[in-house]
Write a structure and sequence with these properties.
The protein is mainly β. It has 5 helices and 22 strands. The protein is globular and about 65 Å long.
Length: 349
Amino acid sequence: MDLSIKTSIGILITVFTSLPSFAAEVFHSPSLCEPEKQVLVMQNLTRTPQRAWTQVRLEGYVDEIQWDVKPQEKLEIKSSEFLSEMKYFSVKPLNNQAFRFTVKCTEGLTWTLTSSTSPQVSHYVPSQARSFKIYLQNLFLQSQKVTLRAFDKAQNVVAEKEITIEKSYDTESLKWNLSSDVSRIDVVGTERLHSDVFYIQNNQEIQSPGLSQVAKLSPSSDKVYFLVSTKSAAADEAFVIALDEPSKIATAREQIQNPLLEKIIVAGIELGNGGFNRAFKARDKAPYSWSVSRVDAFADFAHIDCDGSPDLTEERLEQKLSEGGRICFWRYRVIRELSPEEVRSGKLK
């Protein structure tokens, strides 16, 4: 096992933004047993060395530890090496497809980490069950309300529960015992959210698979929307801007028609998706927790301090907003115009 290396936010931001295409998914997990009794397993599925970071959110920053995993290695890491208490954590791989992450407790409970951040997820129960353990992780900087709905085999709602998660990046856990068999539980939030559902069968807790739904947004008919991404054929990050000034709308359209006119978008951001900003290239097309509130300029050059990416902005949003909320992603350009329906549904025509 290679030595882990703790890295500061400043160093990590420099490293991430200097990479040619850094857009890793983040895999989320609650802690279901004490750190000294919990093991994170990083399984490298490839024949090449791979890298991942464990992430723990502390007051005002993210504590990250780097792990290098040998080809096809199963690296077992005691959670006490990166956690000081039972707490939500995440894992960020450099290669999205290279790993399978699982966590196991010495008591026998095992679960697989998933990367869903959609506020709407359906958890299916292969066998009829009545008792559940549910873990909800608020991935937004403010509180949010979450509705749980349980469905029977005929897809009728048999129970409903509403929960408010008061703190940002906090975990709410609960037991839910129902009077009838359940085949599905829907988790519906208002902002980015991660959920883990376990059903109890024969005194065992079994993880229920989750299927992310594409959340509907509410774009305004008074604005014109544009998709912003990299020109790479394998681009895996994109965000949306909304314009209402005729001159800026014309400039954005010119850049789509003539690549020689492409420029960097220098803009200010604010908290909330604004009814239009989502991770268009992500599998779950989850709404971002931020949106462009103003486009200051389309520029040939921009300062390195506001470089980055949409996902990195999401991950470091609290810090980004505290520093003035300015973005100028060097590699990102306007690539197409979007209809309000495409923005609402997350589906490109």
